[in-house]
Amino acid sequence: MRDEGISRRLREGAPAGVWLSMPSPTVAEVVAGTGTDFVVVDTEHTAASVETVENAVRAVEAAPGDAVALVRAAWNDPVRIKRLLDTGAAGVIAPQVETAAETESFVDATRYPPAGDRGLAAGRASDYGASLDDYYDTAADRLATVVQVESPRAVDNVAEISAVDGLDAVFVGPADLSASLGVFGEYDAESFRSAVDTVLADSTVPVGTLATAPDQVDDWAARGFDFQAVAADTTALQRGVSASLARYADTETGTENTEGGSGRS
Questions:
Q1: How many separate helices (H) and strands (E) can be counted in the chain?
Q2: Which one from 3, 12, 26, 45 is the annotated catalytic residue?
Q3: What pTM did the predictor assign?
Q4: 20 to 30 Å CA-CA from 4: which of 22, 56, 126, 191?
Q5: Residue 246 Ramachandran class (φ > 0 left, ψ -120 to 50 alpha, else beta)
């Protein structure tokens, strides 16, 4: 399996990732081969099963380059989290975390006893048991643990959240955070900017976020985020196809077709 050094890269570097909402191993493999540092396989808002996640993780590892697969859990639930980690994912993202206690529960779910309460299994993560001893000894240092800040309560508690031992990073969910502040999608709104500034100032671990358009990458970098998922598969596909269709419509052939004829006699 590929080295899961993403926890170190989150702490020491500025990795760039891509967010996947289409639970397809093919999409995961294509994206992983672009040079991205990590791919996030979302299970909170998609139809992805654990089996689909496992195949997506395999696809990321099969792609050229050094990308690793992180998985966003559907909820901060230890049962869901352990099943995702058993697929061999390099880390997990927990959504809607609001307190230090919830963060501690999350980190415990990623750690084997006596440090945590993750159950041992001869799954894919440990080469189906062949390297279980080594995986048991090293998983805590290799796996990335990330919580999402998506509400005013989480913003208020971000200093305590980020201080939890074993947490690698905080990830601001811009859509959910702006919605919870009553300014959905208004990323220049004073309340949203203030919340982001608080997270960036109070967090003692790296802070990331998601950009869904190229100009957002610039905006988030200017605001001081430490790392980003710089694209999302669905929006990138929509924008790419729309741009090509618009380009075609501007050509002579596209204009003729729009006017209802081929122009040929």
A1: 13, 8
A2: 45
A3: 0.93
A4: 22
A5: alpha
Q: Structural domain boundaries of the chain? A: 6-258
Distance between CA atoms of 203 and 210, rounded to whole angstroms? 17
Tell me what pLDDT residue 170 has: 98
CB atoms within 10 A of CB 126: 20
Cα Rg of the chain, angstroms: 20
Three-class secondary structure of residue 74 per DSSP: coil
Q: Give the span between the Cα atoms of 52 and 176, in whole angstroms.
A: 25
pLDDT computed for residue 53 by the predictor: 98
Q: Which fold has domain 6-258?
A: TIM Barrel (3.20.20)
Q: Sorting pLDDT into bands at 50, 70 and 90, what band is 59?
A: very high
Q: Which among 57, 51, 12 is positioned nearest to 39, based on CA atoms?
A: 57
The amino acid at 214: P
Asked whether the beta carbons of 95 and 44 are under 8 A apart, the reply is yes
Q: What is the DSSP letter of 71?
A: E
Kindly report whether the peptide bond that precedes residue 114 is cis, defined as omega within 30 degrees of 0: yes
Specify whether 45 is catalytic.
yes
Picking from 251, 236, 254, the residue whose alpha carbon sits closest to that of residue 20 is 236
What sign does the CA torsion over 251, 242, 221, 192 have?
positive
Distance CA 31, CA 240 (A): 14
Rounded (10°) CA dihedral 154, 156, 159, 164? -40
Cβ count within 10 A of residue 209 = 24
